[in-house]
Amino acid sequence: MLNGKKIVVVLPAYNAARTLERTYNEIPFDIVDDVVLVDDNSRDDTVAEAHRLGIKHVIKHEVNKGYGGNQKSCYRKALELKADIVIMLHPDYQYTPKLIHAVSSIIANELYPVVMASRILGKGALKGGMPMYKYVFNRMLTLFENIMLGQKLSEYHTGYRAFSADVIRSIDFTHNSDDFVFDNEMISQIFMNGYEIAEVTCPTKYFKEASSINFTRSMKYGRGVLRVSLTHRLHKWGVLKSKLYNKLSA
């Protein structure tokens, strides 16, 4: 715990057997109370590796539900465990768990209810090996999203995020996509509910075992991001009402 807040780290996993141990071993268990791993029907030994490491809460999807579908299971389990702070961390070791202290303290001290670890602040993205086309794509989408959502984030596409559990309870993420655009829908919901998001600089690593979507999937993701941004603006103007902004049922 930190300041009396229970911290739960959730790991949305897919074919993470080769990187899970490195990720897990860097989690600071001096403050982290529980770890939840949700395996999205991996084709490798992710579940066996999770059990070997002693991860107590392991959920296996019998069919692949997608990145967003995986996160839905992660957050439901974290809320079931009575988490006060939920940290979503990819188990592919692209992001360092060593930032958990920093992002947790911001929420535990009630400075911000949501924290995202940004690869774009500083030089973490390109230095860590992010392909140039993805970097440019990231910057263009982020600019459009900032305009449509009326915000000033450095990026919307990081997979390293920390939430007050109250924030997760306040949004109906069950209507969100099961694909990668789930992340952007969740950010839109957070801002629509009046919460602020802090950012911290995060180094990143791109290597063979780290998960990354290809160019075709990136284009599909980009179209989804544009759709979410426009939906947010039109809902804000009262032009349309989207079920994305419903409250999460008890």
Overall pLDDT confidence: 94
Structural class label = alpha/beta
In DSSP terms, counting alpha (H) and pi (I) runs of 4 or more, how many helices?
Answer: 9
Task: Identify low-pLDDT runs.
Answer: none
What proportion of the residues is helical, as a percent range? Answer: 25-40%
Spatial separation of the terminal alpha carbons: 25 Å
How would you describe this protein?
By secondary structure, this protein is α/β, with parallel strands linked by helices. It has one domain: Spore Coat Polysaccharide Biosynthesis Protein SpsA, Chain A (Alpha-Beta Complex). It is built from nine helices and seven strands. Strands 3-2-1-4-6-5-7 form a seven-stranded mixed β-sheet, sandwiched between helices. α6 packs parallel to α9 and α8 runs parallel beside α9. It is globular. The protein starts with 6 loop residues before the first strand and ends in a 13-residue tail after the last helix. The model has no long low-confidence stretch (mean pLDDT 94).
Descriptors for this entry?
alpha/beta; 7-stranded mixed beta sheet; 7 strands; 40% helix
Quick summary:
With 250 residues, the protein is α/β, with parallel strands linked by helices. It has 9 helices and 7 strands, in the order E-H-E-H-E-H-E-H-E-H-H-E-H-H-E-H.
SSE blueprint and pairings:
Elements: E1 7-13, H1 20-25, E2 34-39, H2 46-53, E3 57-60, H3 66-80, E4 85-88, H4 100-108, E5 114-118, H5 124-127, H6 132-149, E6 161-164, H7 165-169, H8 182-192, E7 197-201, H9 215-237
Parallel strand pairs: 1-2, 1-4, 2-3, 5-7
Antiparallel strand pairs: 4-6, 5-6
Helix pairs in contact: 6-9, 8-9
